[in-house]
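Researcher: I'm preparing a figure for a lab meeting and need a structural model of a single chain. I don't have an experimental structure, so a prediction will have to do for now. The sequence is pasted below. Please return the structure as tokens so I can convert it later.
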Amino acid sequence: MILVEDRQMITERILQAQCKGARLKSACELAGIDVRTLQRWKREGLQRGDRRPHAVRGTPAHALSAHERERILQIANEPRFAELPPARIVPMLADEGVYIASESSFSRVLRAHGQVRHRGRSRTPQRKRPPSTHVATGPRQLWCWDMTYLPAKVMGQWFHLYLILDVYSRKIVGFEVHQTDSSDHAVDLLRRTALAEGIHALPKKPVLHGDNGATIKATTVLAMMNWLGLKASYSRPRVSDDNAFVEALFRTAKYRPQYPATGFTNLQDARDWASRFVAWYNHEHRHSGIRYVSPAERHDGGDHNILARRHTLYREARAANPRRWARHTRNWQPIGVVTLNPERESIVNAAVAEEKESASAA
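Model: Understood. Here is the structure written out token by token.
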């Protein structure tokens, strides 16, 4: 768009170039306009600039109505959604059989009214693939665990949170909080988690991935893993992000509004907080890495029905107003294969083929 002042200046300079012997076409090309554009400017009297900013445009037929925009604002400001970004509001509404608008439309309406909400999506860091390869096509195939420090109100004192995560479903399958860091606590956590998950009845035991901490690699821990049939896997030396799933989970925990900034009063206070966090994370949290279903739903296999219902809802919404959809609807297909680290496509395909062979044999 060229303002009227710029039109007047360009025209004046082209005329000056013509007076000095330049050809009109060459002068216009140097100015970045066409000869016909210059003629039109002269015909209009050089009294007005580009009219596009002031043009009156009709509302597209597929645009959100005023009622729909108002409904988006009302829903987004309900107490249960007031702290959530559109990325989590839209899937939760889909589970209730409600479709109003897409995630991007929610964001645009909220931004127009000064309500900016972060997406809230955690991403697994990208890193080089370690020598060992671990692929999960279902729950109870690949676990990872770690320990993190929970600060006490007394400076210099800490509580220790031990946690085991199912990589496929993202469900926290075991956790404990203790006053001290000891391999005995890790042994007890392994035994209780294996019993709760029914590992003894599985023909193929899970792989348990951890870092190179002294507690996790203690002799008593290795003996318990051997007795349970768990296969050990460890991060590469001096590589801090090879256990990214658990590290991302710890970040989610410590960035929750309920996490005490000044520390925990005592051990029981830390244990109560951990219990509430695990219950929220497993059953209420819509995880972005598994199509915004809860880890417990995916762990139990209920995510397939949930995502199928969402897909049906979106197809019905598209049929009701097809002009709002450029091509296909949102991808609600379940995540099939999960790898501990970004893997080559050949490794993922091999894991899928192995899973199909096992299913056909059964």
